[in-house]
């Protein structure tokens, strides 16, 4: 990964200044959501050209799983107020642990944890599929608002093909695809699964995802490792093949020539490629990421053994990376650093070597194994070591942790120790210069004082397109800088009375910083 600048590695105390932050509530906090660690800067206080320190870059994400109520909501049928409180607590814990992005599962099984005209409300939210929450609210809209208010990116996580999970207990809604188009959905073991070989399934999935991209201010779209399903046992006890004979026969009768396994992989390839292009056509600044199983094929590289996602899930994940069909790639490297047959650093290096387009490589970590109830639980030190191994790989730039529950429970003090050991210095997400986002110029900043002497920076963007964030940095008389990440839609930012210099710059949807507006504190 790109190395964090040395200034941002330093361990220093917080600045003795607090920009206004409200306590936990269902409303957005004041527009100073992320107080980053203050860092000493070598500059002459009298020098008018003194500039703020550069900000480190690293992706620090966490998956928030809604399927089977793994992370959120904690149970089905929570009241609106309780579900909001839980989500706020989760976001606060993510921020406190030093994370800067949340991967929020909004479509676990052909359903929706948001207001949708295309798919029914999720059973995991209200307790019965198709039943809207009361009082009415939109969890995705709320999550976006509250995450951004805390300086966190929000990526919407979709399962592309699963139609029903074994944990579901209630009836399917009449609006579910299984009821509306039963010929597109297959029973497979304990699951219902949309047939990836049906073009109408791909069209529906793309339509669902683009609807969210259009209507919500998300930072990314995320797919997990479930493409064709993991194999299940048939009635005789042997592994059952996925029941797609009809769609494959239709493909052959239309002139198709691929063997069945190759055809299955091509079906998934088409979805990934189409999503990459259509998302960027709809909103150029929305990132598209995929988190496949961590091993492409056993023997790649030589020492690696294990599950073959290429033949079992029909996921040619290496192709997606090598074709540049993703903005970020998060292989699930769910094994210890020292486990020879699935060695974390070895797999990470191999994936980095496949990354010919230089996309973001942010491996997934099985952090939920920390303190789990098993014979072989991990300690937090394993995750600390994995983050260190990621930083040692020049081709990687961050991590995504599965899942939020381990941070909420703070098992083996993971949230506390990650904030202190791994994520003590702050970081913005890495830039994506290939995204076609309009560059930001220097904003116009006017400092105002009220009758009590409190200062507020009124920020006006320089162009017609709003930035994703404002990076507001202030220097105290001691020469110490503090930094705050503020939503681009905000205009007024409280400034510490002790600040003697203020710098504001726009950060666009590709996480690229524009030029700074730097000014002295008005007397």
Instruction: Report the CATH architecture of the largest domain.
Output: Alpha-Beta Barrel
Q: Calculate Rg over CA atoms.
A: 24 Å
Output the CATH topology of the largest domain. Answer: TIM Barrel
Percent of residues in beta strands?
A: 15-25%
The number of helices is 14
Q: Which sequence of strands runs across the widest sheet?
A: 12-11-10-9-5-4-3-14-13
DSSP, total strands: 21
* Global morphology: globular
Which class of secondary structure composition applies to the elements?
A: alpha/beta
- Multimeric state of these chains? single chain
Question: How far is the first residue's CA from the last residue's CA?
Answer: 43 Å
Low-confidence stretches: 1-46
SSE layout:
Layout: H1 6-9, E1 34-35, E2 39-40, E3 59-64, H2 80-96, E4 101-107, H3 123-126, H4 139-149, E5 153-158, E6 162-164, H5 177-180, E7 185-188, E8 191-194, H6 199-215, E9 220-223, H7 245-253, H8 260-282, E10 287-290, H9 309-312, H10 317-322, E11 328-329, H11 344-354, E12 360-361, E13 364-365, H12 380-392, E14 398-402, H13 404-409, H14 414-422, E15 444-449, E16 455-460, E17 469-476, E18 480-487, E19 492-495, E20 499-507, E21 517-520
Parallel strand pairs: 3-4, 3-14, 4-5, 5-9, 9-10, 10-11, 11-12, 13-14
Antiparallel strand pairs: 1-18, 2-18, 6-8, 7-8, 15-16, 16-19, 17-18, 17-20, 20-21
